[in-house]
């Protein structure tokens, strides 16, 4: 066991970590026969030394070359997965949709396009598909085909087609996250990720700050926020965003420090937002509409309509790249909803979507019946998965040629995604050696993927850490995941493993 190698990066570890470490090896022939493989001894010794006291840790390590468990600790405990849940979403999306899948947004008329003196006597249909990458510019380009055909006036209605949902956020999404763009609502009507950017600017000390919405987006944000100057003895300043009807927001509270703050605000009513955006686009193209903008769930049979133009998203492979590398929550929810609706061939709500999620994984031999799944992004506090659940998914991805392409979308330490600049992952020995999805929220610090050890072998791993308080996290000299993986880099090569001893849960 390379204990000296372990200690070279363990001693500078956490201030708040178990500090006792002892291991006695008996070298008699009889006792040696009872020892577990050397790689498991290595991990057992490492975990005995670094497992934190204050948080709960679950760990599973799998030798991909020998197809065997190396180590498990609390691997069956149900814990909050946070964003490593997106690995499950990536797998079911690949299974259900296929690598070449693209979202499409379509522009139709009822009759073949016939423009007389700039007038179109027809209804126009814009069919949304829940494309999480659709931008206002894409819609502008789509509708521009009418302008290019000479349309100046429409004597008819504009129909926006998309499933109308009462529930736009999953159960367990934290209330104070809902106005922030990483918790943007899921809908068939997604434009610019249902996110609007704004800037808050001071008008002097103790005066109401000015808030400007960028890009002339159709929302209204009222500022009651005040810029102030505080010292440590005064009550700290903070800002609160209140949501009203019709995409109306009120920003209250106070702020200090920088006089100008960037804001990212999640649209609260995507359907109404889409109506206003489409209306503004027709005006931009100088097309008057002598009718209404109507939202409806069920379009007429497309074979009865005339297609004018279509916008296609990037293929699924690129969408999964964005979901895993950037940990894009809306992308995850959209892909899961689309996969589930294809599975059941019916529009679904969040509860029905998660039932389909479990069923699709069951079809792949992954049993989540004892888990609790509330969404596809991992944002919900109601999610409960075990390290073994996630490991089962990783095994399918790593060994089934149909899904191995998903590994190319995992962040690479020091190179891409959420691991590009992560502390200790952006330098040796972890740089370029770890390929894994992060999962973080308050109290949660998870990592799952694969690493290449110094012995040349590739291992799958799932690390779930729950109960990590912000106070303890600030005092850490290095993240627990980084210290663990540094220790795993020196895992010994085992040519003929004979047994594995499963440690007691801690």
TrEMBL record:
One of its GO terms (biological process) is peptidoglycan metabolic process. Keywords: Carboxypeptidase, Hydrolase, Protease, Signal. Its EC number is 3.4.16.4. One of its GO terms (molecular function) is serine-type D-Ala-D-Ala carboxypeptidase activity. SUPFAM superfamilies: beta-lactamase/transpeptidase-like (SSF56601). Residues 1-28 form the signal peptide. It holds the Pfam family Peptidase_S13. It is an enzyme of class 3 (hydrolase). InterPro entries: Beta-lactam/transpept-like, Peptidase_S13. PANTHER family: D-ALANYL-D-ALANINE CARBOXYPEPTIDASE, PENICILLIN-SENSITIVE CARBOXYPEPTIDASE A. Belongs to the peptidase S13 family. This is D-alanyl-D-alanine carboxypeptidase/D-alanyl-D-alanine-endopeptidase. It comes from Shewanella holmiensis. The gene is dacB.
């Amino acid at each position: 066991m390379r204990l000296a190698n372990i200690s070279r990066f363990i001693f500078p570890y956490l201030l708040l970590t178990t500090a006792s470490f002892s291991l006695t090896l008996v070298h008699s022939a009889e006792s040696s026969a009872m020892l577990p493989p050397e790689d498991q001894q290595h991990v057992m010794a490492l975990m005995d030394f670094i497992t934190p006291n204050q948080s709960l840790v679950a760990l599973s390590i799998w030798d991909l070359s020998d197809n065997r468990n190396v180590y498990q600790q609390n691997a069956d405990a149900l814990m909050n997965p946070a964003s490593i849940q997106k690995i499950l979403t990536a797998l079911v999306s690949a299974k259900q949709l296929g690598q070449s899948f693209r979202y499409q947004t379509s522009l139709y008329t009822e009759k073949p396009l016939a423009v007389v003196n700039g007038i179109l006597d027809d209804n126009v249909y814009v069919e949304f598909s829940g494309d999480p990458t659709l931008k206002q510019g894409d819609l502008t380009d789509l509708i521009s085909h009418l302008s290019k055909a000479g349309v100046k006036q429409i004597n008819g209605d504009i129909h926006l087609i998309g499933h109308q949902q009462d529930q736009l956020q999953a159960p367990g999404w934290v209330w104070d996250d809902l106005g922030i763009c990483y918790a943007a609502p899921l809908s068939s009507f997604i434009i610019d990720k249902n996110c609007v950017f704004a800037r808050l600017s001071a008008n002097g000390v103790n005066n109401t700050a000015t808030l400007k919405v960028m890009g002339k987006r159709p929302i209204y944000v009222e500022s009651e926020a005040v810029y102030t100057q505080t010292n440590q003895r005064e009550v700290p300043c903070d800002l609160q965003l209140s949501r009203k009807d019709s995409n109306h927001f009120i920003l209250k509270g106070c702020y200090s420090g920088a006089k100008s703050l960037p804001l990212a605000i999640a649209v609260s009513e995507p359907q109404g937002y889409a109506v206003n955006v489409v209306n503004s686009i027709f005006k931009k193209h100088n097309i008057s509409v002598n009718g209404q903008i109507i939202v409806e769930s069920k379009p007429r049979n497309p074979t009865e309509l005339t297609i004018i133009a279509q916008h296609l998203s990037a293929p699924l492979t690129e969408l999964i790249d964005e979901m895993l590398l950037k940990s894009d929550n809306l992308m995850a929810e959209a892909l899961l909803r689309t996969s589930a609706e294809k599975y059941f061939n019916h529009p679904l709500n969040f509860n029905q979507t998660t039932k389909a999620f479990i069923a699709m994984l069951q079809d792949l031999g992954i049993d989540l019946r004892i888990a609790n799944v509330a969404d596809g992004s991992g944002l919900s506090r109601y999610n409960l998965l075990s390290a073994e659940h996630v490991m089962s998914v990783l095994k399918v991805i790593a060994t089934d040629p149909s899904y191995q392409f998903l590994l190319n979308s995992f962040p690479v330490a020091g190179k891409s995604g959420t691991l590009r600049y992560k502390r200790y992952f952006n330098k040796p020995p972890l740089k370029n050696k770890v390929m894994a999805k992060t999962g973080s929220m308050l109290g949660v610090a998870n990592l799952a993927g694969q690493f290449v050890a110094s012995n040349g072998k590739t291992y799958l791993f799932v690390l779930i850490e729950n109960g990590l308080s912000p106070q303890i996290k600030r005092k850490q000299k290095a993240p627990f995941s980084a210290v663990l993986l540094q220790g795993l880099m020196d895992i010994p090569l085992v040519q003929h493993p004979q047994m594995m001893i499963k440690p007691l849960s801690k």
